[in-house]
Design goal:
3 helices, alpha+beta
């Protein structure tokens, strides 16, 4: 598992406006954590196809159909960054190319007010 990998994950239980159900997520945690054998958590950004979520710039990143083998036009929801147990990651879908991962970095900086 590495930063930028896209997995299908189970986002449950959740509440309110949090993304839920089985959906793709992008791994954004540091590879030092991702590859540590005794580290059971991973930090991810959920991916959605919601048109209403797509308008939430600058904290969303559009992902074209086919990017990381995604089957639909999608968006990475960086304002919903979350931590999951690795057991919730089900299947590796693909990996984001460098330019999209850089866009996610920028959107995370905006969502978290990081300089």
């Amino acid at each position: 598992m590495k930063r930028g990998d896209v997995y299908w994950a189970v986002l449950a239980p959740r509440s309110g406006s949090e993304q839920r159900g089985s959906r793709p997520v992008v791994v954004v945690s540091h590879d030092g954590f991702n590859q540590a054998p005794n580290w059971n958590s991973v930090i991810v950004v959920p991916i959605s196809t919601s048109a209403s979520q797509a308008r939430r710039r600058p904290t969303v990143v559009p992902l074209a159909k086919g990017t990381a083998s995604l089957k639909s036009e999608s968006i990475a929801l960086c304002h919903q960054v979350t931590t999951l147990d690795r057991a919730k990651l089900q299947k590796l879908v693909g990996s984001l190319p460098g330019p999209q991962l850089s866009e996610i970095d920028s959107a995370l900086r905006a969502a978290l007010d990081l300089s």
